Amino acid sequence: MAGASAATVAVAGGALARSVIVWWSLRIATAAALGVDAAVHWHNASAYDAVKATLSQGELFRIQTAVAVAVGLLVLVRPRRGSWVAALAVGASALAAVLLYRYVDVGALGPLPDMYESTWQVPGKLLSAYAEGAAVVLAGLGLLTHHATRQQRRAEPEGSARTRAHPASSR
Q1: Where is pLDDT greater, at 164 or 24?
Q2: What is the pLDDT of residues 38-81, one digit of tens each?
Q3: Residue 34 to residue 51: CA distance in whole angstroms
Q4: How far, in Å, are 49, 57, 58, 110, 165 from residue 53 at the CA level?
Q5: What is the SS3 assignment for 154?
Q6: Of 2, 42, 75, 79, which one has the fewest beta carbons inside 10 Å?
Q7: Domain ranges, ordered by start, for the chain
Q8: Is 94 helix (H, G, I), strand (E, B) or coil?
Q9: How far is CA 8 from the centre of its chain?
Q10: pTM (2 decimals)?
Q11: Whole-angstrom Cα distance, residue 62 to residue 35?
């Protein structure tokens, strides 16, 4: 909310305050969902080091951890269109992978090991799937909200209280 003051929020009659709360809530919730996904993958990585092709499943879990943390921080620090797209891609790809390897035995794919696991009983597996699904929904909403606020800013006269104080006004 760069450049906004309490007076600018009051001028907007509460609508701006609500939009700022929604904007920050989406950012924090998306980062938290990616954080849960990262924590589960980090915690389970060593148990999957023996599942190998060119890369081990444990190495893939560690890569997933790093990417999820980086993108979660990106959404918090720089909530640009690209950040939301990255969060959507990370959540969707991780969710697609867990669902694919839960229900389909595709075998090894190039450098990827055979990661088929026909159960949800692995500690954290279901939790990470829920977190990945939540990240997809939240990042999608963040992307839609970001797009809507950009259109709104274009329609408003330059220098209006909403234009000056909106959290995405500089994006």
Answers
A1: 24
A2: 999 999 999 999 999 999 999 999 999 999 999 999 999 999 99
A3: 24
A4: 10, 8, 11, 8, 52
A5: helix
A6: 2
A7: 12-165
A8: helix
A9: 30
A10: 0.79
A11: 13
Copy the structure tokens of residue 55: 């890369």
pLDDT at res. 14: 58
Identify the CA nearest to 94 among candidates 73, 125, 122, 119.
Answer: 125
Tokens of 30: 């998306």
How far apart, in whole angstroms, are the C-alpha atoms of residue 47 and residue 57?
9
- pLDDT cut 90: percent of the chain above it: 70
Amino acid at 154: R
- For the stretch 124-170, pLDDT in tens is 999 999 999 999 999 999 999 886 665 565 665 555 555 444 455 44
Alpha-carbon distance 59 to 65, whole Å? 10
User: What's at 20, amino acid-wise?
Assistant: V
> For residue 16, what are its two tokens?
């701006």
Assign residue 10 a region: left if phi > 0, alpha if psi is -120 to 50, beta otherwise? alpha
